[in-house]
Amino acid sequence: MNNVTLSIENEVAVVTIDRPKSLNALNSETLAELGEVFSDIEKRKDVKVLILTGSGEKAFVAGADISEMVNASPAEGRTMALLAAESFAKLENMPQVTIAAVNGFALGGGCEISMACDIRVASENAKFGQPECGLGILPGFGGTQRLPRLVGKGRAKELIFTCDMIDAQEAYRIGLANKVVPQAELLDYCKKMAAKIISNGSYAVSLAKAAINTGLDTDLASGLKFEADAFGLSFSTYDKKEGMTAFLEKRKEKNFKDF
Ligand code: HXC
Predict the structure, then answer these.
(1) Which residues of 116-155 are buried (b: 16+ CB within 10 A; e: fewer)?
(2) Nearest Cα residue to atom 9 of ligand 1
(3) Are 188 and 236 in a shared domain?
(4) Residue of 66, 83, 141 with the most ligand 1 atoms within 8 Å of its CB, for mutation
(5) CA of 23 to the centre of ligand 1 (A)
(6) In contact, 96 and 206? CB cutoff 8 Å
(7) Which of 43, 50, 65, 167 has the fewest CB atoms in 10 Å of its CB?
(8) What sign has the CA pseudo-torsion 25, 29, 31, 36?
């Protein structure tokens, strides 16, 4: 891989987009490599949480690669959007929890890939925005769909139509960032959050993730039905017995087996 690195430790995969000279802009090669890494991770049993970040101290991802898009045809633009849609859907729906460690600019496709993650933790210097309309295009990596779902229709329209860049605190205020931490502590904070998530029943966490994602894409009655089915399924697990027995025995340590 030329533009993406992967390291795995303590059941946590850190995926780093590594094109610092162009502020980690997403070109087609990087999108394809991310797709491969996500396909690999979604099948792995030894990874429970994926942390996605950008290399360097300035940018998470400054967007899709403008130098690649400038001469692209409509068909090529559409292909790029579809390539991103496929790999971002893997990120969004993999059974593992995904955390975007937003270490700087998260613009355009950068903001969009962070929104395909379950949780966004921003460093104090992070900046979010959807500057596409200023380039004569529109958000094409999911921004018109995921941003309103996260921050509401009015705020999403304002951000997309004005192309305003917002800082980490404002992103936190509107619910785009879950948390803001000093840049030097960002990865450690995300790893601690990962460890806390992993200490719970991972199969239950992945069922809860599927219920939330499925429910937000459907009507309330269907979402509640999915939840009831998933809830019933969790009663068949070793972890349900172990988690509840530990509570009744007033035992803090739980020996979850993730099934
Ligand atoms: C290609 C990029 C890039 C990008 C930065 N660079 N962003 N190259 N695509 N998205 C390159 C610059 O050209 C420059 O290369 C180097 O990275 C450093 O960037 P500077 O502009 O010199 O840094 P600075 O002045 O600090 O400004 C940082 C910045 C600015 C505010 C983040 O780079 C910027 O506005 N970038 C573009 C952001 C953007 O519009 N993103 C949305 C893209 S469209 P050189 O060679 O000069 O050193 C998109 C659409 C998604 O994402 C959907 C598509 C289907």
Answers:
(1) bbbbbbbbebbbbbbbbeeeeeebbbbbbebbbeebeeeb
(2) 65
(3) no
(4) 66
(5) 7
(6) yes
(7) 43
(8) negative
Q: How many CB atoms lie within 10 A of CB 237?
A: 18
Q: Which of 132, 170, 185, 249 is catalytic?
A: 132
Domain check: are 207 and 173 in the same one?
A: no
Number of domains in the chain: 2
Q: Are residues 128 and 95 in the same domain?
A: yes
The pTM for the full model equals 0.97
pLDDT in tens, the chain (259 residues): 999 999 999 999 999 999 999 999 999 999 999 999 999 999 999 999 999 999 999 999 999 999 999 999 999 999 999 999 999 999 999 999 999 999 999 999 999 999 999 999 999 999 999 999 999 999 999 999 999 999 999 999 999 999 999 999 999 999 999 999 999 999 999 999 999 999 999 999 999 999 999 999 999 999 999 999 999 999 999 999 999 999 999 999 999 999 9
Q: What is the CATH number of the domain that holds 223?
A: 1.10.12.10
For residue 11, which amino acid is it?
A: E
Known catalytic membership, residue 42? no
Distance CA 117, CA 188 (A): 18
Q: How much is the ipTM here? A: 0.98
Structural domain contains residue 259: no
Residue whose CB lies within 8 A of the most ligand 1 atoms, among 3, 22, 69, for a mutation test: 22
